[in-house]
Each structure stands twice: as C-alpha cells, then as structure tokens.
Amino acid sequence: MASSLAGSSRGLAAVRQGPRNTPGRFRQAPLARDRVRAAAAVAEDISQDTYCCLGMAHCFKKNENGKLEDVFVIEPLSASSLECMATGARTSFRVASGIRFADALSRDRARLPEGFEEGRWCDNYEYRLVAAARTWLRPHAQDNLMDIVPLGKARSNFNFCLDDRRVLNLDNVVTDDDNIKQDISIDVYGRTDKVEEEKARAAAAAAAAAAVPSMGAAAAEEEEEEEEDALDALLAG
Q: What is the top-level taxon of the source organism (predicted)?
C-alpha cells in the first residue's frame, strides 16, 4: 500500500512538473505524450470509459497596457462543481460537455462539440482531469449527476455571468486595510463589544467632567447665601 501511494505521488509530480532534463540543460515544457503517459500511470484505477465533464470558461488576461483581454479556457469540471452550476449558481463557464476520460486525456478536440475550438487547455490539465474524474466515480455522482450533461452532449443554459471576472494573471496584493475590514465584518474576537465599552466609558468620563463645574458653582452660591444670612443676623442684633 505504501509503495503504491509513493508511486502515485511520484506520478502526480510528473504530471505537474513534467520530465526533467539532463544536467546542464534548461528544463523544457513536457511533451504532450509524456504528460498523457504520466497521467495514465497515476489514474490506473480510472477506466478509459469513465464519465468526465469539460467546461469552457470565459476568463480574462491583463495585457502589457493593463487592459483586459478575453481568454477562453477548457477546464475539467468536478461533480460538485457541475451540480452547483445546475442549481443556478453564477458561473464563468459558457458551455459544458460530457466526455470519456480517455478522450479528454488525449485532448482530442474532435470529440468536443462546437464552441470549444477557440478554447485553450488550462494549466496542469492532466493533473486536474484525474482529480475531477475521481469525483465522478462516487455513488452520488453516478446516481444523480451524470444526466446534467449526458455523455457526448453539451449544455450551455447555465447562469453565465461576468460580474466577477476571472483574471488569470492578476496579482492579489493583501494590505492592512483588507485585514481591518475583515476584522470588523467577521469580529471573531468580540472586538466590536470592546469598542462599544470604551465608547461608553469615554462618555461617562465626559459627563462626570462636565458635572464638576456645575457642582462647584452650586457650592459657591450656597456659601454666598450663608454669608448674606450671617450679615443680616449681625445687623439685626
């Protein structure tokens, strides 16, 4: 068991990184046949006829001028992802197609319906395909989800939306402002309560400070009245 897991780990690494070159040479992109061979070795438990689903997503890429350009990407869809799309969730996928694992692994565009011609294969395609294919082997997917997009068919009536654009080469820079906004919105440490307590204490202190002068004025007025009463008593005597 341990040896098979070790073999799978090495195979997955080969899918992600590709073959290594000989020492002293630059590493080059792996050949297509090497990627397919490595993925097939890892996916020994997956039948060639296993159902898979490929989708084409409408993405964007920022060019040198900072403007967004349309990019269409072919990506494997897991069972849970397709189920979510079928319930009406917003998605960037324009179309999805049911396909055999072997055909998807070979990147055979002839097996895909119209609309996929302009798409490019996603990064780490073989690795992601193997992972997605395994989700379709689960009982829930086998019994309930394969009819969403039948094998050999395509479906495009999803809730396609580009409000939240997928930018492939976007650098997400996190700042302190983001952390502050997150703390206020989530407040997992009860910091909002502490802020309210501090405000209440400050208000009480301000009220006490304002009350001190009025108390002093009242005491002075009372003392003045006592002096007047004493003077009146002296004159009367």
A: Eukaryota
The span from the CA of 74 to the CA of 97, in Å, is 10
Q: Which residues contact 103 (CB under 8 A, 6 or more apart)?
A: 111
Helical spans, DSSP H, in 53-190: 79-86, 101-105, 125-135, 139-144, 176-186
How many angstroms separate the CA atoms of 33 and 20, rounded? 14
Residues 166 and 198 in one domain: no
On whether both 65 and 156 belong to a single domain, the answer is yes
Residue 233: C-alpha distances to residues 124, 220, 226 (Å): 105, 20, 11
Give the pLDDT confidence of 144-166 residue by residue, as tens digits: 999 999 999 999 999 999 998 88
Q: Are 168 and 61 in contact (CB under 8 A)?
A: yes
Q: DSSP letter for 109, please.
A: G
- The answer to whether the CB of 117 falls within 8 A of the CB of 56 is no
Mark whether 106 and 202 lie in a shared domain.
Answer: no
pLDDT in tens, 27-36: 444 556 666 6
DSSP reduced 3-state for 171: coil
Residue 1 lies in a domain: yes
Strands of the sheet containing 154-155, edge to edge, are: 120-121, 68-76, 51-62, 93-100, 154-155
Domain extent, residue 30, equals 1-42
Per-residue model confidence (pLDDT) at position 216: 61
Q: Determine which of 13-17, 37-41, 46-50 has the lowest per-residue pLDDT on average.
A: 13-17
Kind plus residue range of the DSSP H or E element containing 51: strand 51-62
- If one counts the domains in the chain, the total is 3
Tokens of 152: 């050999």
